[in-house]
Amino acid sequence: MSSPPSPRPAPVATNEMLIGALLRVPAQAIHRRIIRELNAAGFEELRVPHMAVLQFPSPDGVRPGLLAERAGMSKQAMNQLLRSLEGLGYLARSDSPDEGRARIVRLTKRGRAAYAKIHEILRNIEREWSAELGPKNFTQFKGLLLKVWESPLVK
Fold first, then answer.
1. Where residue 135 sits, what CATH number does that domain have?
2. What is residue 11's predicted lDDT score, i.e. its pLDDT?
3. What pTM does this model have?
């Protein structure tokens, strides 16, 4: 049984909205939608916390420590998520062939299918947002986000 969508925050004046909320609220909504649609597509056991692993760039071939760093969480918390996803059949951890004792994450066939479905969902979201904002505005919006992402401000 799916839960109803979370209510939107109460309207506030534009100058009161800080950048953290302006970025966080849509990101959380996207994660909830991805999980809702993944669950409906047969990936019933996935939950929002799993998005810390199943996000861009792919976790395939990556060390758990780097995944933890990308997600902004401790190695212990990441390893707990990895154990969960491994137990559910989405990934496997193995020794790195060229890094001694280092471990790497590999997506299983089911993990690759889920990751492909995530991309499909995100493409649908982009089409919807483009229609809502207008193609020109959406392209500009995405371009500005990319510019911020590439800047030293977020390093």
1. 1.10.10.10
2. 62
3. 0.83
